[in-house]
TrEMBL record:
This is PLP-dependent aminotransferase family protein. Coiled coil: none annotated. Keywords: Aminotransferase, DNA-binding, Pyridoxal phosphate, Transcription, Transcription regulation, Transferase. The lineage of its organism: Bacteria, Bacillati, Actinomycetota, Actinomycetes, Micrococcales. The keyword Nucleus does not apply.
Length: 470
């Protein structure tokens, strides 16, 4: 992986370090302060530190103090120095590339060296995440005296999740919560608990491919209902359910992936009423519920309108994809059956990660402000850039989510993806998100969760690929 070199001015580092307090030796304070900035993601791998002379002048420390601090950073693996090039930050073990959101089997592409992955619709870790892991480690001794199995999740985390639903006007108690290893695991577990093999499941198309694949692998027969840029077709949903034969429906009312649409309360109430009327089990995926980018939407969880609905949540989009945790919120009468199925899949989520998530949800619930602002900026920039350079594409700017759902004037999605790959740009064709595994050749998803420099590199490659195949 190529490293983008950043230069950290001495004044910026001084402001980030803050005021020295306590009796800690000056060199140790400086070295530990920089290490904490690296651990918390505020100073990135490859960043050039100020020269010793610049830092001496800015901090008012002796040259010996700064030299010793830099030496300690090198000895601990947080910096490296090259003759004539200064001191550069490094992450012990190196900066590990990849880690992008995997899509369904058979779709994931291998990223070439120096390439750009525009298949991933998830943000990077927020600044300061490492400090939550450090604090969670302080709490861990209280749990390691036992066997470490919490099949339904840590009681403290289940209570926090229940409190969050109650705050959103969906009264919930901890005994209605099961913590899982991500939202996909939650969807699969809930489906196996309430569906017989061969049952028909209705889903909007396009939809999130991993959930659809998971349901199909359980034996569900998927039935597709179109959803367009204008949002969910509530009359169409009502008519499809009224025809009968549907056992469950996968519902994504919150910044639908990939269209980015948000359903209002009136639509949620009609949808929920139709599910109950026709005895169809609704599985509501709220993975993107907190990904609003403009104004916070005044909407209620769909389960507010129908207590029989099963709701799935996730930490991956709101906090970090590496925090592999999700949860199920279900009616009490289903919890036993769902937990029984869960025990055939795994015996509980990792304790440390649950402690981290509990700290995050109680102290900074939801997407943090810098991440939200960065996503909003990226969305606005790439929407304007594509609109100016490919005006024939129809792109509705979503109020939230992680991607643009772009309508091409010709059915060239697969050709576009193949052409872009030649330039090192990896895209997902529209058919990736089709419930029936085909079609949607007039569409392509363009995420904007990458950092700005990568998006600025990606857009010319995307424009060039389109002009070649158009």
């Amino acid at each position: 992986m190529s490293v983008i070199t950043r230069h950290l001015p001495a004044r910026s580092l001084r402001n980030m370090l803050g005021t020295r307090v306590g009796e800690q030796p000056a060199y140790s304070w400086l070295a530990e302060g920089i290490r904490q900035l690296v651990s918390n993601g505020r100073v990135l791998h490859g960043t050039m530190l100020p020269s010793e002379r610049e830092l001496v002048s800015e901090l008012g420390m002796s040259r010996t103090t700064v030299t010793r601090a830099y030496q300690e950073l090198r000895e601990r693996g947080f910096a490296e120095a090259k003759q004539g090039s200064g001191t550069r930050i490094r992450i012990p073990g190196g900066d590990i590339g990849g880690g992008s959101e995997p899509l369904a089997v058979g779709i994931q592409e291998t990223l070439p060296s120096g390439g750009i992955d525009l298949t991933c619709g998830a943000p990077t870790a927020p600044v300061g995440l490492a400090s939550y892991y450090e604090r969670a480690l302080d709490q861990l001794p209280g749990y390691i005296g036992g066997m470490g199995y919490y099949p339904m999740g840590l009681p403290v985390l289940r209570e926090t999740i229940a409190h969050e639903y109650t705050r959103r006007n969906l009264p919930t108690t901890p005994d209605q919560i099961i913590v899982t290893a991500g939202a996909l695991s939650a969807v699969a577990t809930a489906a196996r608990a309430v569906l017989a093999r061969g049952a028909r499941v209705l889903a909007e198309s396009p939809s999130y491919p991993n959930s659809v694949t998971s349901l199909r692998q359980h034996g569900a027969r998927m039935t597709a209902l179109p959803i367009g840029p204008e949002g969910s077709d509530i009359p169409g949903i009502e008519a499809a359910l009224a025809r009968g034969g549907i056992s469950a429906m996968l519902c994504l009312p919150d910044f639908h992936n990939p269209t980015g649409t948000l359903l209002d309360n009136a639509g949620r109430e009609r949808w929920a009423r139709a599910l109950v009327t026709h005895d169809v089990r609704g599985i509501i995926d709220e993975t993107n519920a907190d990904l609003w980018l403009d104004d916070r939407p005044d909407v209620l969880p769909m389960a507010t309108f129908a207590p029989s609905l099963i709701t799935v949540g996730s930490a991956s989009k709101t906090y970090w994809g590496g925090l592999r945790l999700g949860w199920i919120r279900a009616p009490r009468e289903l919890i036993g059956a769902i937990n029984q199925v869960r025990s055939t899949v795994d015996l509980g989520a990792p304790v440390l990660e649950q402690l981290v998530l509990n700290l995050l949800m109680t102290e900074r619930a939801g997407l943090d402000s810098p991440t939200r602002a960065g996503l909003r900026k990226n969305r606005d920039w790439i929407h304007a850039a594509l609109g100016a350079q490919i005006p024939e594409w129809r792109i509705q700017k979503p109020g939230g989510g992680m991607s643009l759902w772009c309508n091409l004037p010709a059915p060239r999605s697969m050709a576009l993806v193949a052409q872009a790959k030649k330039s090192g740009l990896i895209l997902s064709p529209g058919s990736t998100f089709a419930v029936n595994d085909h079609g949607l050749e007039h569409w392509v998803r363009v995420p904007y969760a990458l950092d700005t420099p990568q998006l600025e590199r990606a857009v010319p490659l995307l424009v060039s690929a389109w002009k070649t195949v158009a």
